[in-house]
Amino acid sequence: MLKVVLTVSFLMSYIITSVAQSGQITLTHLANSSHHDAHRKFVEEKAREFSLRHPDVNIEIVAASGNYVEKVLIAAAGGVSYDIIEPTTAQIADIVNQSLLLDLTPFLQRSGLSRQDFIPVALLPFTWNGALVGLPTEINAVTTISNVRLLQEAGLQTPGQLGKDWNWDALRTMAPKLSADTQGRGVNDRWAVALNASFHRIFPAFVHNAGGDAYDAQVQPRNATFTKDSAVAVGLQFYLDLYWREWLTTDAKTFRSEERTAISLLDGSWWIGLHEELDDPFPYEVAPFPAGPARPGSEALANGFCIGVHSQHPEKAFEWIKFLAADYDNAIEYMRATGRPTAYLKATPRFPTLFDKHPPSISVWIEVLSHPDVRIRNVTPVYTTVQNEFNSRFRDVMDRKRSLTDFLEHMQRFTQSRLDEIWRGR
After folding, report:
1. What's the mean pLDDT in 294-313?
2. CA within 20 to 30 Å of 252's CA: 133, 278, 328, 381, which one?
3. What is the pLDDT of residue 66?
4. Residue 349 in 3-state DSSP?
5. Closest C-alpha among 93, 58, 57, 101 to residue 76
């Protein structure tokens, strides 16, 4: 349980007035600053539209800068409950662990909606012990994105053209043809692939397709598997081999804006927005991650809207989040405004048709979501802690200062101890 001491002045900043004016209720919606600007603008515009349709309801958007989870937990410790919160996949476990979210199942049943109205993988972060604690609004797949021009100049097929042959062997074969020291400085300044040295990027791109994971479950894991699953070492070693040969760079901008890297394993559908911001946009193509020894999977990231367990107006709050997440016209508008697929199945197929300046292969961002090997980012309260530990320690392995075996043994002990702390408290 979060232990905090709140000063009177700090607590007063969180006091929320339920009645704005005679006969009108106010729903407080805690906005998440980690979401993109287009998302924020969409929610603000829809709040005005919802209030016009429902004159008895005022939507108050409360800005939350800094640590979003901390804001939610501190407010709850002070006796304040927001009506709507919007955690990311990485944040929701900390909030659910404190029993701060309402089960939406009864509201869903009364509304005429069902879980079948949403992409199944998008529901995973919001499903806890049978309870549905949120409605997913967007679902992003992280995939391969290729600079078509650089591949053509090297006389190579694109990953999309390779189809089922786009795998680790193909990447190994292509990599030396796409990497070079063009300045004669003894180090490469062009690379085959960009992928930063972060837990949340390496595991979905390589470890997952090697057949491994850091945990024994994608949602609510109890056990760490850094050393228990041999495929973890296989995936990390593949990353290291690419890096040590100078075929892989950790610098995202070499792909995103400098055209010095041919293939990115860093981005999902948000690439649409990044690409449109380029002064000289280059032709690109989307494909799944390269298949590894075990599978050809990709990773999905889901965001959504939840209702605080102490909301005084849960029925109205559900109407509001349903309006945001499960209204066909709004779902289309959200995709067009943000470049991100909706999790609402009736509208999802429209995604590739909304961006005529982008290649037909953007449909891959939808197709991989129903692939049996898609994974959701791990949903556990220890996710951020483990990620930070991995990121701070893995650099020593990359610099050959520490063995991979020793590193994995450390991560196994570290992660298991954090998981044990969480489960002992339940």
Report:
1. 95
2. 381
3. 83
4. helix
5. 101
Tell the residue number behind the tokens 């997952």, with chain if given: 208
For residue 191, the surrounding DSSP H or E stretch is strand 191-194
- Does an H or E element contain 391, and which? helix 383-398
Task: Give the C-alpha separation, 11 to 79, whole Å.
Answer: 9
Three-class secondary structure of residue 400 per DSSP: coil
- Residue 140: strand pairing partners: 301
Instruction: Record the tokens describing residue 338, joined without a space.
Output: 């943000």
Say how many CA atoms lie within 13 Å of 103 toward its Cβ: 7
**201, 255 in Cβ contact below 8 A?**
no
What single string gives the DSSP state of each residue in 9-24?
A: HHHHTT---SEEETTE
Nearest to 383 by CA among 215, 225, 210, 236: 215
Would you tell me how many other CB atoms lie within 10 Å of the CB of residue 384? Answer: 17
Average pLDDT of the segment spanning 8-26: 48
User: Helix or strand or coil: residue 422?
Assistant: helix
* Mean pLDDT score of the chain: 92
pLDDT above 60 for 104: yes
How far apart, in whole angstroms, are the C-alpha atoms of residue 199 and residue 331? 31
What is the C-alpha to C-alpha distance for residues 300 and 257, in angstroms, rounded to an integer? 24
Give the tokens for residue 163: 């189809």
DSSP 275-292: HHT-SSPPPEEEEPPPB-
Q: What is the pTM of this model?
A: 0.90
Residue 1 in this model has a pLDDT that exceeds 60: no
